[in-house]
Amino acid sequence: MDVTDKQSVVIIGGGPAGLTAAWELIKDGGADRYDVTVLEETHEFGGISRTVKHNGNRMDIGGHRFFSKDDRIMDWWKNTLPLQGAPSYDDKKLNREHDMEPGGPDPEVEDKVMLKRHRVSRIYWNKHFLDYPISLSVGTLKAMGFKLTMVAGFSYLKSMVHKLPEDNLENFYINRFGRKLYSMFFEGYTEKLWGRHPSEISADWGAQRVKGLSIMGVLKNAFQKLLPKKRDNSEVETSLIEEFWYPKYGPGQLWETVESNCENAGVKVVTDAKVIEVRQQNGHISSVVTEAADGTRTEWNADQFISSMPVKDLVEAIDAAGVDTEAAATGSKAAPEAVTEVAEGLPYRDFVTVGLLVNHLKLENTTDIPTLGNPPIVPDCWIYVQDPGYKVGRIQVFNNWSPYLVKNVDDTVWIGLEYFCEEGDTFWNMSEEDAVKFAISELMRMGVIEKPEDVLDSHRERVKKAYPAYFDTYDRIDEVIDYLDGFGNLYCVGRNGQHRYNNMDHSMATAIEAVDNIKSGKATKENVWSVNTDQSYHEEK
Fold first, then answer.
1. Rounded to 5 degrees, what are φ and ψ at 362?
2. Total domains in the fold of the chain
3. In this protein, which residues make up the domain named Amine oxidase (predicted)?
4. Are 370 and 460 part of one and the same domain?
């Protein structure tokens, strides 16, 4: 193909969606057909899926299970980092057996490898550790007591008969769990996560994130686990998945590998490139302007544009470009006032992780699952702190995600405390020293550690626009979608690019759909926006 026939594509953002789009365009000789440029605002890749390195330890921002009911995504991951073919360090130490990939790499020798992991997550509530998702196990019933269990049971039965209109997240949860369990395990945690009461949040969030999860779903899952036939993950509701894959050095390792693969195949990757203007002509996007930290500006022209930047920022960048007289004559125009109003009002929840390296946890492993450490640690990947008496939302135990995330995995425990906040609020603006002190005090009150001296090292990481939120002007987001879709050569992908709280696999799927549209010339973008809107995507195959 003659070089003049190549299509130029500019991709905004080097997170999962942006890098997936780049690879989908360039793989299998795509460099002969597409001239691809990725513009990344920071110097890191993976967005919220990156891995932060600190003094020999690695922190997974947010925690990422590599699991999808979309076989395209599972194959994509496995082709990037092959599955382990020999036991990992903790597999050996704990005499743990699971299926190995024939011919797969040895994690003790090779770095580019995906581990097979087993998920354990529990809820911390009223100084008790309960199953997550909440289940009617002996431990739960014992922690709740007979009277509370009966109240919760009758409350649930009432919810089965009397359904509330699902016009907000509160009613969505009550319909599935009953008012009592909702008030105990969902109301306070949801308000902690979003900074809003569930009655103010769209039910879309629940419909997307927990889909078919309910008391009946939990009970069905518990019963089926007792059966001798081993189920495939595709048969299990996503929120209940217990087995998953995980890169040896955390999720960022996968995206760093993808970025390297893209560059080697011909993609131009530019860091320190914040998009500040999006210019248009004849109803299409004609170019974007980036600004580096030193103020240097660069204009990037292309035939096609794929954006994973926040919708709010994208519309602002279109407006920032302005429309001159010549452009106006060709039909170019700034965003309508109503669209700008909706975009500016789209809310986000920001995120702080406080990593603490401790010499041991005060918690006793009361499960039958063997763990590393001396003394052994608890087996949890996550501990959900659904007790409203604490600001921390979740605690990650990085040792259990991958032993290779921890420099001295036998003698130290590397944990991450996840706090939900807003950029600029009191917690966000805390000094790192004060944030660490706050986290330590919460752990001591919870009984997770005994004294401040148990903490050997710490690191605070802040993440802007981590979670697109479903309130304020969100109920009018279709106005923004219609406006952006009016640019025939602009595709919005990913979590922030669509203002949708997608999992990593869904973000990747939006990018794959967008690239398919570019390759096929499909005009509609409905397939790009419809990823993760069909309930069956999560629940069945």
1. -75, -15
2. 3
3. 17-446
4. yes
